[in-house]
């Protein structure tokens, strides 16, 4: 059984790929600014969505994921009352970190990345 990699975008539009990657990486501003994990991708998406369809797609994907993760983190924080939320919070944090890095790498190669466990709130 072989796993096929997604087909990269060979359009050569490096700016679109770079801004698409930044839509994902700007989620790390959440370490510095409260709600920065949502504000960073939102600002990049709003600034570049009209110029590049790829950035529009990846910006919406990144925003949906960050909002979804915020909801999951809130639920896990509430579950800390019955202790089960603590390992869930740790797992969510590791999952978030790894998946955001993978998404950024894929976007930089031109692949329209789709996050797992993503609620499609922004269409």
Described by the principal axes of the CA atoms, the overall outline is elongated
Number of domains: 1
Q: Can you give the mean pLDDT? A: 86
Q: Helical content, roughly?
A: 55-70%
Terminal Cα separation, in Å? 34 Å
Count up the helices: 4
Unreliable stretches covering 5 or more consecutive residues: none
Strand content: under 5%
- Major β-sheet, in short? none
| Structural class by helix and strand composition | mainly alpha
Number of strand segments: 0
SSE series = HHHH
Radius of gyration: 15 Å
- For this structure, the quaternary state is single chain
Structural summary, described in words:
- It is a single chain.
- With 123 residues, the chain is mostly helical.
- 62% of the residues lie in helices and 0% in strands.
- It has helices at 14-25, 36-48, 53-79, 85-108.
- Helix 3 runs antiparallel to helix 4.
- The mean pLDDT is 86.
Notable traits:
123 residues, mainly alpha
Write the layout of secondary structure elements.
Elements: H1 14-25, H2 36-48, H3 53-79, H4 85-108
Helix pairs in contact: 1-2, 1-3, 1-4, 2-3, 3-4
What is shown here, in short?
62% of the residues lie in helices and 0% in strands. The protein has 123 residues and is mainly α.
């Amino acid at each position: 059984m072989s796993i096929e990699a997604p087909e990269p975008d060979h359009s050569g539009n490096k700016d679109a790929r770079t801004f698409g990657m930044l839509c994902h990486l700007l989620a790390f501003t959440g370490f510095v600014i409260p709600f920065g994990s949502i504000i960073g991708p939102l600002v990049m998406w709003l600034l570049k969505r009209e110029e590049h369809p790829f950035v529009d797609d990846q910006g919406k994907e990144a925003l949906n994921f960050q909002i979804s993760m915020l909801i999951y983190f809130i639920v896990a924080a509430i579950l800390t009352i019955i202790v089960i939320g603590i390992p869930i919070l740790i797992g969510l944090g590791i999952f978030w970190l790894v998946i955001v890095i993978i998404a950024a790498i894929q976007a930089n190669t031109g692949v329209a990345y789709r996050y797992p466990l993503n609620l499609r709130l922004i269409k």
